[in-house]
Amino acid sequence: MSIMLLAITKEKEVKTLLSWGLRVAEAEEATLHVVHPEIYPKSQDALPQLLDKPSTQPLLESIRLAIEEHKPTNEVHLTLLRGPDPLAEVLTFLKQEKGTLLLTGPSEINRDTSPVLRQKRDGLLDRISCSVMVMHDPTSSMTPPNNILVPVAGGPHAEAALQMALKLAEEDATITALYVEPEAGEDAHDVGALIVERILQKIPEEHHKRIKTKVVLADNILDGLAATIQEDSYDLVLMGASSTGWLQKSLFGNIPVKLIQRNLNVPIGVFHNSQPVAQKARDFVRHWLSRFLPQLKRQERIALFDRLQSGSQVSIDFIALIGLSTIIAAFGLINNAGAVIIGAMLVAPLMTPMIGTGLGLVQGNVTLVREAIRAIVLGFFLSLVLGVCCGLLGALKFGGTPQLTGEMLARCQFNIFDLLVALFSGIAAAYALARPGLLEALPGVAIAAALVPPIATVGIALAWGHPSQALQAASLFGINLLAITLASTLTLYMFGIRARHKQPKLWAKRLTVTLMVVATFVAIPLGTALLAQVTPTDRTLRQAIHKRLKLEKHHSLAKFEHPRQRERESITLTLYSVEPPTTRLIKELTQLVRSQLNNPELMVRVVSLRTWQLPYKLKASPKK
Q1: d(Cα 91, Cα 35) in Å, to the nearest integer?
Q2: Are 40 and 84 in contact (CB under 8 A)?
């Protein structure tokens, strides 16, 4: 038998809530626990109350007498709960008894105006894992409902509300499934009827004959509901919760509360089915983040929105900074000057629209996302064109077909660590932008996530006739763009930024999930390529080289490089040498490497670093 909990906090709720609680418990064939939460300085164990003996507390005695008057057929218990937070005590008792349904009134928790306590209770409400029914009954009717209205909107709990209505209603009672459709044209009524029919398909077919369908055309849902209730004199309005955060809204302000405020003199109930495991996990993570990660205050959010919205727009300042940073980066790449390239990173403004894209995804703000993407695309092509121009100008320095410098080649090779650097750079940038006191950290983040140098490398490589390296540099920029956008989206979400309730955000969720999937598919080959850098063959080859060099007195292996992302596979052996290696040693090492890898055409480079003494060899012990 299932367990049902009925929470009563006020004298006026005894007649209304108790009658509904007994009725629902009988329909569910559940054991009913009637609990009265009472404010007390310290939490105490639950205090069971005897139903056959009078209680000294007036409210408990009223509940006991009302239970005796109803003469319930199912098992009923009365319990007193004491603690500093009544809601927390109810939830603790609910967990201990493994309750499957909680019935409560719409105003039982709306008694404290303290923002701190309200926030705490909102967190507790998110952790309710069983089904919940919030009930308001101004009629105090003791008769079973014969005419039940169930407004449905296609949400996940409409089916549960219909199922509850079928349990509460007598066999000859009328149940009406109502859908309010906006007056948007001639086919509006048919569209609403189709939606109601789709919901009824989830109900067992044997119950369809007990349910009537009704479609009302109205631009305002609340007006359509109120007009329908007044016309047909319903005994009960039972609504399915329509969104996440339903309990807070039904208790503190939503359509049910607005219906109550219209004094329609009809019982109104809001039903929410038990949360799935995924929803519980999301609520737990959200509650955990709100406790341990400082959430942005209203003024901080406004300042952040202003910075990112203005920085994500194409302006003369944006174009000027993109142009200047590209020219500086291009000349630094051509001259192989790392310090100049770092200066270009500090000037580049591309990081802001990427984080602006993340903000737009979190908010569901399609305008901001469109503006930010426009700035990124324009910045990329402007930087690309300037990179080509600088490459053509730099070719005059070398003549013929110039080769890419070391700084350029560094932008043409990437692995999983580049993705991780971009990911954590995006987190750091979003964190710094969200906290005004940390804006000084942004230059360091800009250096860590190089954005303009890879684009400049693409332009120079195209100008110098190296299309494959240009594609690799463009891929590095794409990885940075993907990781920074995704990281900023997740970081801003953790800071408490959410979409407005009325704003459609399905596209934003889908795009965010798509970014996650793409990042995963990008990370797999990058990680595999990194693991391939050190294969069993490489380890065997390294051991063979060490063994051969042990025969030499003046040489040892300092570094073994086997990159696999170039056009032609090659191996570089760096030696510590007291004297230059002989031609014979170089040939033997080359043949050893080629034979081990079974590649007679393999390019093998031997680099000798002159040293006075081999680092790992010990000095000879003195003769006695």
Answers
A1: 11
A2: yes
Nearest-10 Cα torsion for 182, 185, 191, 196: 30
CATH, domain 536-610, list 3.30.450.70, 3.10.50.40, 3.30.300.70, 3.40.50.2300: 3.30.300.70
Q: Cα(337)–Cα(324) distance, rounded to whole angstroms? A: 17
The ranges assigned to domains in the chain are 144-271, 295-529, 536-610
Question: What would the DSSP string read from start to end of 382-433?
Answer: HHHHHHHHHHHHHHHHH-SSPPPPHHHHHTT---HHHHHHHHHHHHHHHHHH
Q: Does domain 144-271 have CATH number 3.50.50.60?
A: no
For residues 102 and 5, the answer to whether their CB atoms sit within 8 Å is: yes
The verdict on pTM exceeding 0.70 is no
pLDDT, tens digit, for every residue of 586-610? 898 888 888 887 888 888 888 888 7
Task: Please give the span between the terminal C-alpha atoms of the chain, in angstroms, as a whole number.
Answer: 94
569 phi/psi in degrees, rounded to 5: -65, 140
Lowest pLDDT segment from 263-277, 403-417, 518-532, 560-574:
560-574
Q: How far is CA 529 from CA 413, 484, 524, 609, in A?
A: 11, 22, 9, 29
Q: Crossing angle for the helix pair 13-28 and 58-70, nearest 10 degrees?
A: 50
Beta strands in 399-537 (DSSP E): none
82: CB partners within 8 A, 6+ apart: 37, 38, 39, 40, 43, 44, 47, 89
